[in-house]
Amino acid sequence: MHTVIFTASFYLALTICLTGTIYRVSNWFRFKIGPDAARYSARERMAAALKGIIRTVLGRRFFAILKVLVLDVLFQARILKSGFFPWLMHMCIFAGVMLLVLMHALGESITQALFPDYASTLNPFMFLRNLFGAMVVLGIAIALYRRLTVKDLRRTTNSGDRFAIVLLAIIIFSGFLLESVQILSSSIFDQMVKDYSGAVETEEIKHLKAYWEQEFGVVFPGAVHPTDPEYLKKGRLLHEE
Question: How far apart are CA 62 and CA 42, in angstroms?
Fold first, then answer.
């Protein structure tokens, strides 16, 4: 059920993104700005744009565009010229979100193809996912701080900026909240055990439950597990495996 919901949500979001992109690009050819534009039809402008793209890709300017893509888009070099903290803010948000999309949202499609032993609940993948989330949180914190302390930013911040920050914060913090709930959920524990070990209820699983009960606060219905150090040690070893 979870997979179906995720797949449907992913394709819905992708459809919305593509629809918006197509709409924005179509504006370049639908609207006529300036007296000279009236002489050219939408078809002529599309043909001219296509020729320009081909000449750029096949010409020497391609390397200049590639340089801009790497330095100014991926590494935000242009923003770095205006200051370290604006650059750090943008890099944390941009890199954090992109890496979360690749490693978490598209984990089964991309990360698993690159790393056959990928599992979202195992390190280093879980650690990296939390690290990327923390990067976004740091970026949001810097954005809020600068908008509260820098007068020029306070003056120019509009409702769109506030909405973007709030939306991003909701997405990231809801992800952390979901992970916390899953850690505390006994049903999630049972599902993980079934997925990764295939066991139902063995003595080893009881050790593991005792460890999770002690370390993560998971409440297993109708079960009281021993808390002596030796018993928990066996559970910890199973957890680390």
Answer: 26
